[in-house]
Amino acid sequence: MPLAATFALLFLIGYSSQRSGVCMMRAVSEVIDRRRVHRLAGFALAAASAMLVMATAETLGAQPFTLIPGAPADRSAIAGGVLFGLGTLLSGHCAMGTLAALTAGDLPRSAAIAAMFAAALLLGPEMSQAALMLPPRGLVLSPLASNLPAALAIGGVLAVLAATYIYRRLGWRQPRGGWSPLVAMSLVGAASGLLFALDRQWVYTSRIAGLAYGTIPAEPAAFAGPAILILGMTVAALVGGTFEWKLGTAREWSRGAGGGLLMGLGATLVPGGNDAMLFTGVPLLLPNLLTGYAAFTATLFIALIWRRRRAA
């Protein structure tokens, strides 16, 4: 695919993510506070769209189901998901939410992203494995690699169910400064699926890890993709009227840094941030990412419910 098309997809993902408010912290809070699962349904729609696109790309020879392996569902994946959830709680945003907030002018979010890089740099997979005396982890291919009809069927059913739920409750309604969740989440998922068929490390947490581990050379090309993603988010915030400079307090900067460190460590153990868990783990049914995502989500639910009851 031409580089221009790749950049266009990254811009589209950034723009759509900002306009739809992609953040698991907000999704879980919505369930607890408002008894609504609209955002969770949007995540399901995005993952299903990615699965359908990747399955289609597999039939055309791109092979995302075989070239993007995972790992076993072990204690490292669980611990990583829990740590990522605790980091999200401390920071106030998940990985995608952190980047979206930063590109909307919330400057303390930069501390979280810098801390994620520092954690990956200092606590890479080999060091973490040695320090925690973890056994070597083997590679696990997607169970859908040899069963594309199942991928198309699962993705199709999940997409229809999620889209039907969203349409019945929201229709084509557009939130303030946003897009209809039906449009935005379908675009985010489809574009991410197509990108994964071309570049398994397009998600920015994977790019951070790759640069820290040295598996991605620190060349201008390595920063071009994240820059386009950031540009898309920033333009969306400006167009939607949600951009506002926020210098933040010392407490917000410290919480961002602390949360980023925990998220960086969690992403190292899974391995993968919550963006990789959603856009890779769910569409490819990779055990470690699914397990990490479940642990991450459960941690958010338990902590936010406890926090709400304590405040009552």
UniProtKB/TrEMBL annotation:
InterPro entries: Sulf_transp_TsuA/YedE. The chain crosses the membrane at residues 77-104, 111-128, 148-167, 179-198, 221-241, 253-272, 284-306. Keywords: Membrane, Transmembrane, Transmembrane helix. Signal peptide: none annotated. This is Membrane protein YedE/YeeE. It comes from Erythrobacter ramosus. The lineage of its organism: Bacteria, Pseudomonadati, Pseudomonadota, Alphaproteobacteria, Sphingomonadales.
